[in-house]
Amino acid sequence: MNIALIAHDRKKDELVNFALAYKHIFAKARLFATGTTGTRVREATGLPVHRFLSGPLGGDQQIGAMIAQNEMDLVLFFRDPLMAQPHEPDIIALLRLCDVHNIPVATNIATAELLMKGFERGDLAWRETVKG
To answer: What's the whole-number mean pLDDT along residues 120-126?
Structure first.
């Protein structure tokens, strides 16, 4: 299971704390993340994280390419809904790719918890069949 981790600046602490809380589940997956988010999650959890560029420099698009090639199974994107993002078109494109390719995506901690608990129970095993 390949999981992408993305967080806007004011949500990075929240994602790091989430990764610590669900470290036992994340340890069963391959983790990918945008720049600073990946560094922070790796340092906090000790888990291996493949880092892409930061979001504004193309990291969102690199993750989007994995989605388009059916190489990503789950996206956790902790967005900051109260702050305008200069690379908003890239964010919308990433979310659109998740919708087009039926990739589960969480943009807040509540949905992320549901997805992680589902992954732990095996509810997302259908992704392995799709990747076939």
So the answer is: 83
